[in-house]
Structure formats: structure tokens, C-alpha cells
Amino acid sequence: MKEKTFCLIKPDAFERKLVGKILNIVEAHGFEFVAMRFLHLSEKEAEQFYIVHKDKDFYHPLCKYMSSGPVLCLVLEKENAIHDLRELMGSTDPNKANEGTIRNMFGMDIRHNSIHGADSPESAKREIIFFFKGIL
Ligand code: UDP
Ligand code: MG
Questions:
Q1: If you measure from the C-alpha of residue 134 to the centroid of ligand 1, how many angstroms do you get, rounded to a whole number?
Q2: DSSP SS3 for 107
Q3: Which residue in 58, 96, 98, 105 has the most C-beta neighbors within 10 A?
């Protein structure tokens, strides 16, 4: 059965003009684009999006970075979309991400890793609502 997931292209990808390349790869792996939204988040909005990480030491630098430039929010659809997008993204740290993954190819470091993908059905639902039905 087809499933929806939430994906976000991060500011470091915009800065290095990698957005088109990343979209190409996502599309070539069978994901359909169901919705897209281009935004520049405020730090407060980034803090809300990443609220699960509020107690981590990287929370504030992460939210500063996520509001430092544009982002592209996407709803993607395919069979096993949530799992398959996480696989295609690779590990959080690009140095540990498998070859051929987006973070391995384009990520700079554990923070500036080019792409976000929802990690569970609950996160996908929350994140889709946050960006496409919420207050932003
Ligand atoms: N992050 C960071 N420092 C860390 C770990 C994570 O700045 O030590 C950032 C990174 O951009 C990551 C995001 O916080 O993508 C969310 O972290 P998470 O552990 O949820 O990784 P993800 O699910 O994105 O792989
Ligand atoms: Mg995560």
C-alpha cells in the first residue's frame, strides 16, 4: 500500500545549489511529489519543528542553522515511503552514511546534512500537518 512521508531539503543544500540534484535522486527512486512548499523558517518555527530535540545540546545551533536560509518541504508518496526515504538519506552523520546515500554524497557534517525525512508514521503525520495544515 502506498504511504506518505515528509521530507525537507535543508539550507546547506540551497547554499550549495544542490536542491535540483537531490530532487532528481528522490524522484528517480520512485517517490511521487504530492505537495511542496518553499519557506524560510524563523528560529521559533524551527524550534517547534525540532521540539523532540529540545533537551539535546545541539538543539539551539540546529535551530539557528535551520532558520539560516530557505528550506523546501515535501510530501512524498510510494510504497514504504517512510523507511525507503530514510534509507536513501543515509545516517545522520554524512561520514558514516553508506555510499550512494544523499547524505554521503552531499552532506557536510552531522548538522549540515542536506535532507530531513520523517522517522515513523507518527512523525510523518505530525510533520505533514505542521507544514501543510498548521499555522506557518
Ligand atoms: N544534529 C546536529 N548534531 C548532532 C545530531 C544531529 O546538529 O549531533 C542535527 C542534524 O541536522 C540532524 C537533526 O539534528 O539531521 C536531527 O537529529 P536526528 O538525531 O533526529 O537525526 P536525523 O533523524 O535527521 O537523522
Ligand atoms: Mg530524526
A1: 23
A2: coil
A3: 105
